[in-house]
Every structure is written in structure tokens, then in C-alpha cells.
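Have a think about this chain, C-alpha cells included, and walk me through the fold.
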Amino acid sequence: MGCLINTVPFCVQVERSMPVLNLLHQVAHASAAMIPHEHCHLSAIQQWTPPGLDAFNLFNTLLVYENAPAIQQSTYDGTIAFTDKHELEFTEYDLAAAIEPVGNRLLLHLSWNAHKLVKEYAICISQSLSQLLTDVHKALLHTSAPTPVHQVLTLPEPEQRMLNAFTANPLAWDESKTVVDLFTACAQRHPDEAAVELDSDVWDYQTLYAKAQRLAQWLLHYGLTAQEPVGIIIARTPDVIVTVLGVSMAGGALILIDPEYPLDRISFIARDCGIRRVCYTAAHAEVVQRVSALVPVAVCEIDTMLATAPKNTASTLGQVLPSHLAYILYTSGSTGRPKGVMIEHRGLSNLIQQTPSIVPHMRSHFRHMQALAMTFDGCIWDIFMTLCHGGTLVLRDEIAHTMHHVDSTSLTPSLMAVLDPT
């Protein structure tokens, strides 16, 4: 029959400095305010959901309070005695926790979908819940000195101590620099070093920077504005890397589009984020023509842009600020419509500047293979991580063959699992 509950979804606003008791009061008041609406069908609530919210995934966390008073033994005539009880419930959720008061303690029961979650993960969740409940209890006992929400631990104390040790000395990074600044400085330091390689085609940093600069000037000459979304029909070629850099240098926001996408998905992305121009290689002219017939976009063939760009490489480029939009990444849309996630330059720059601390092999002349799907978030990291630190971005022809000629690559776990480790 399904889950027979009348819980109504509601949102909770949480601030770091908010006292724990205030948060609990807020949740209690919000929950009580929902009681008059418990007769509403979930389908109706989904229809009332404001634009921008996922109407089909309204519950991030679902708490059901069950009041089951104990039956007094005296109500029986003595012929039957209940000495113990055992309850076993099943839910349709991948993870469910039941908290039962036993005397002055709370007993936590955890059940999970073994096809999706391993036992070790479930144990970690149970330990985190136990720590959370313990800290909330402590906070409620010390009302004279309110405990802010951010001081409530969600990790067991040994793990929290380990985390504190690892994060005790945060790495410094220049918040004023964008990846455009980092790439420009790198190109000036290593003008003659190999920057991009595809088979026998190798471009040095000087060539790559000059082409990207000319493409940026072309875009600015034809009216590109700061943070304007620019669609790029991707291909694993040096020209597309030039376009990624050129759009960034001109101040535009990258939207990488797979030419294998269904036409309606490409059209949706173009309309959703307001793409006004699409850059492409000649190999994908047919795809772009079909898109432009459905969505009013200017089509920009990369070779033509480079051939007709202004010759004055000293021209001033658009100012790119850390707060500006760097790129928009669209989700797969497997649970509904694709959703665009907007990433600012400050976040991307922070990641790129911190990369040497987590990738020990990084140095001048290192060779990194770009093997991920170019619409994947990791592709952006591959490009800028390599080209902002003096490495060579190797565009794969065939993974198994290329692996022997590079120092590193980024792979998804599923792809790594099928590779021969030898």
C-alpha cells in the first residue's frame, strides 16, 4: 500500500551562528504550522512548488514521529504474558533510522538498502547520528551559554580530531587571481614549452596564448559582454582548447555541449541559460545548423574566428573578476530536466591554485591526459590544472595507448575498473 503518512514538506533556514535551541524551536513551529495542511495531497503540493525548486524531490530529510503508548500488563487477565517484543519494519528508502527511547537512553536502529550502500557506510552514518544527538543533548543542557549550530559535531570525536589536524593550516591562495591571470602568467614563463598535444600536432604556450587572445578579441569585437554564456560544441582538438581559453579571456561563461546530445537537450540548454552564440568546429556544422533553426543563436566557426580576428594582439581584453561567472555545468537530467550549476572564477581559481598540494607530480613539463568526457566538470579541471602550471595537456586518441606516454590522467571509477593495470 505504500508509505501511509501525512507528513508535509517544509523548508528550514539554518545559520551557522544560530543557537541549537532556536533551530529546534524553528523546526517545531514550522512543523506545527503544517498541521492544518496535512490533508493536502502530495501531488497538489508538487503543483504549488515555486519555480526553481525540484517538485519531485521535496523531502531532503523525512522525520516521522510515532506515538505508540505501552500497553499496561494489568489490562490482561494473566493467561497471556508479553515478555519481549521485536518489531521489523521495511521502508522504500535507501537509508532509514529509527530512534527509540529506552529508559533514559536513545536506541538507534539503522536499516539500509544493501544493493546501494555498503555496511561500512551505514556504520559511519550511525556514528555521525550518534555524535549529532549527543552534541544536541549537551547543547540543551547548557542553555545559559547557547551553543551555536556550527559547534555541533557530525563526526565522531576521533575523526573530528583528524579533520582538525588536516585543516589546521589552510593553504594560502591569491583571491584576486582568476584562471585567466594564472594561464597568462604561465604562458609568459614557459613560452616555448609544449602546451597542447594531439598525436603529432603540438602547440607551445606562446602559440596557444596568441590564438586564445585573438579569439577573445574576435568575441569582444562582435559584442560579447561580461559573463555572457557561450556555447561550445566540444571536440577533443586543440582548437576547442583555444576556444575554452579564448571565451574565458574575453570574460564569457563556458557552456560545453556534446554534439551527440539529442537536439532537444541542446536546444533546452541554449534557451535555459540564454546562449546567444555557439562556437564550433567545421566537423559539427550540421549539428549547429539544426540547433540554430530552433534557437536564435549566432554561430561562430572556430577556424573562421581565428582567421578574421584582429591582428593587434596588444588590444585590451575584457576584465575578468573573481566574482564573475566562469562556467555553467548541466546535470544529466536523469531525474527530470537538466539543471545548470553556475561556478564563479574564485572557486575555480582556488581549486587550480591548491592543486599542487594534492597532486604531487605537478611540475613544469608534466604530461596530463585529458580523458574525461568534455562536458564533465573534471574536464575543466584537467584543462586549467595543466595549463596554469606549465604542463602539457595530452588529448587522448585511445586511452590504453596514450597511458604509457603521460604522467597522469583523470578517470572515473567505472572506467578505471576496466583498464588493464599493467
